[in-house]
Amino acid sequence: MPRTPRLHIPHPPARPGDKPDFSYVEISPAGAVPRPDVMTRLRDIERSLAFEMVRVLDENDAAVGPWDPHLDAHDLQVGLQHMVLTRLFDERMQRKQRQGKISFYMKSLGEEAVSVAGAMALDPGDMLFPSYRNQGLQIARGRNPVDMMCQLLSNSKDMCKGRQMPVMYHWARGNIFSISGNVATQFPQAVGWAMAAAIKGEDNIAAAWIGEGSSAEADFHYAMTFASVYLAPVVLNIVNNQWAISTFQGFAGGERRPFSARGPGYGIPGIRVDGNDFLAVVAVTRWASERARRRVGPTLIEHVTHRADAHSTSDDPSRYRSKDEALAWPLGDPVERMKAHMIREGAWSEKQHVELVETLSRLVDDAWEDAISYGTMTEGPWLDKNELFEDVFKDIPPHLIRQREQLREMED
Amino acid sequence: MARMNMIQALNSAMDVMLGRDPNVVLLGQDIGFFGGVFRATDGLQRTYGEHRVIDAPIAEGGIVGSAIGMGVNGLRPVVEIQFADYIYPGCDQIISELARLRYRTAGDFFAPLTIRTPCGGGIRGGQTHSQSPEGVFTHVCGLKVIMPSNPYDAKGLLISAIEDDDPVIFFEPKRIYNGPFDGDPDKPAVPWTAHDKGEVPEDYYTLPIGRAEVVVEGAEVTVLCYGTMVHVCKAAARLAEVDAEIIDIRTMVPLDVETLRTSVEKTGRCLIAHEATRFSGFGAELVATVQEECFYSLEGPIERVTGWDTPYPHAFEWEYFPGQKRVAAGLERVMEAG
Ligand SMILES: Cc1ncc(C[n+]2csc(CCOP(=O)(O)OP(=O)(O)O)c2C)c(N)n1
Q: Which of B18, B29, B58 best tests the A interface by mutation, with the highest count of A CBs <10 A?
């Protein structure tokens, strides 16, 4: 008997060969969403924040409305610089992977504002729990690109001592937690870090980032429950870049409701923000961190953005999505928009931009030369092979001492 | 017959079963439109439709849990977990539910799931794309556990797994998807075309679950291995110039004790090799079985060659991997003992 299936299967609006179609992305005009006081009761703000879109930069590149964070020229320049550096770093490292110099890479092209603005809106003592596509957090916190490259190379100066795949950085002194290859695990961990800060009576808060695809994992929901139950001082960010690997955001539950709207379901305000609008991301992150710091509670932020390049160097997006998506993305490019705004404000010029790109390109190239002097995949100096057995435990137990000796004997 | 690599053989097995049984459905991340990150389900959604080859949210617990519900409601789900390293979020559903459903309901409910998942290292995947967690699952009663070492076995065993009414965890050593790998990363890759098990019937056939295979006959020592290590052990025996009898375990649960016993009684010596970590690894079960069954035939202690008891590193991949040299050294130790 032939069957007539009735199960709903989500369909992205465009596949390879189709014209990109982002008409499903609901966009509010810049300046249209009111900015409530952070003490406002959830029920009075949940609709406007979770279903509209906070935007500051308008079509004429002016900053408008109640969410304008009023950054001075210096802060604007710093923000732009971090975004440009993130982009150049990505572009160069992808090239190194193509040349076989590193084994794997993941770019954040088109999403730079999410991480850079997020880091700049938080305090240096706040603890960040990134996913693998938040290199902008590291850059904005001032991490030396050489250190990041040494991790990519698994060389003698790798902060992970060769134990993690490329891009899985951590930075204890910079208050950036270790990136896991298993998605979503950082979300409840960030909530726990924030709970500990509250238990200890300390003022620092935590922030975490997760891809919209990964928000399907149970860990996301654990995080929301714990954050809500304990009113943990944490900022929880969903980066909705429209695609997981080959599945679009509808496969994570985004077809009929924005991800931000999950917040109110848990008793947590959700804010939907234009993730390619640097100023808007700064503003909502400040609002959320103020809520956390003033002990009002956690906030969920959905950053609406677009993954402009492949998922990773192992991915080929031309197999599952339309080629011209990045050009058709209605919220534009975060670097271009910021630059246009700054030029309009008289805080920047085309000439300065060209110089910045040149300077930062040189910085990245010099950093690479420096990094490879600590070893590459094919040339020393090498990590000490004994390191393979360290840090499984605090103190190495007898069976690992034995195995370490066996390896040494094999090598002789 | 056709020449197939392991991916094509697995694809063919699923193709055959989707065609034969309307209750077979596939569920997993990126398996539908895209055809899977390793392309194991390439083209199947086009042929059988999106209600049979279903893309899933990134939630392994949700995938396994909902597949159990589908199985209880008459379907025969074949789940793909993108990497074995990502099976853990699904573990409560696998261990507490799937494995025990038949037992706790006295046979009134069961879920005939097959969970396919790529495992093993040697691909520069670091600690979250290289694990071999078979021992975690062989320790759970109620799960059948399989790891094939070649395209022919992969297809026959996968079809058997799908038809089996018990849950099966089906590990696919990803390093040998495209060709047999003998543990030497400096040698150029060899395709499956030159291997006799790269010859695969296009139609339906099955291999029995619970049967090991003697892949090389020998007189001096029995080598018990599975997955990628079958190829490594063959090369290591040549390197050590030992007349080894190499047995591909193929199905860890249920284990083919008879084949192991017959071989060890003949050779009097035994080496066990796996890529997974050593402590409480599946090799420990094999050691125990061999000593229980063949103690009086053994001429020396049983040797184990395994991954080290550390996470799988990104650097030092080949120091970690139990390659030819380590197995050959193990063989020399077994031969010298007693
Ligand atoms: C637990 C787990 N399951 C599956 C994967 C494989 N995987 C890695 S990234 C990814 C897609 C994640 O998409 P999203 O969360 O939207 O983040 P994006 O890559 O778009 O930034 C998948 C399925 C994984 N790393 N961990």
A: B58
Closest to A217 (Cβ–Cβ): which among B22, B89, B278?
A: B89
Residue of A222, A383, A388 best to disrupt the B interface, most CBs of B under 10 A = A388
Contact at 8 Å (CB) between B29 and B80? yes
Question: Min CA distance, B310 vs chain A (Å)?
Answer: 6
Q: Does 3.30.1490.100 match the CATH number of domain A42-380? A: no
Tokens of A187: 């979300």
Relative to the CA of A131, which ligand 1 atom is closest? 21
* Residues contacting residue A203 through CB under 8 Å, at least 6 positions apart: A197, A293
The interface residues of chain B toward chain A in range 267-286, judged by CB-CB distance below 8 A, are 278-279
Contact indicator for B44, B7 with CB cutoff of 8 Å: no
Tell me the CATH number for domain B2-200: 3.40.50.970
Q: Where are chain A's structural domains?
A: 42-380, 382-412
Angle of helix A350-372 relative to helix A145-153, nearest 10 degrees, comes to 50
Q: Provide CB contacts within 8 A for A330, sequence distance 6+.
A: A22, A25, A27
Q: Does residue B29 line the site of ligand 1, with CB under 6 A?
A: yes
Atom 4 (ligand 1) nearest CA: B86
Provide the whole-model pTM.
0.97
Question: What is the CATH architecture of B213-336?
Answer: 3-Layer(aba) Sandwich (3.40)
Q: Which residues of A touch B61 (CB under 8 A)?
A: 217-218
Pocket test for ligand 1, best of A134, A167, A185, A214 (most atoms within 8 A of CB): A214
B58 at A interface, C-beta within 8 A: yes
SS3 string of A91-146? HHHHHHHHCCCCCCCCCCCCCHHHHHHHHHHCCCCCEEECCCCCHHHHHHCCCCHH
> Identical fold at B2-200 and B213-336?
yes
Each residue's pLDDT, cut to its tens digit, for chain A (412 residues) gives 679 999 999 999 999 999 999 999 999 999 999 999 999 998 888 888 999 999 999 999 999 999 999 999 999 999 999 999 999 999 999 999 999 999 999 999 999 999 999 999 999 999 999 999 999 999 999 999 999 999 999 999 999 999 999 999 999 999 999 999 999 999 999 999 999 999 999 999 999 999 999 999 999 999 999 999 999 999 999 999 999 999 999 999 999 999 999 999 999 999 999 999 999 999 999 999 999 999 999 999 999 999 999 999 999 999 999 999 999 999 999 999 999 999 999 999 999 999 999 999 999 999 999 999 999 999 999 999 999 999 999 999 999 999 999 999 988 7
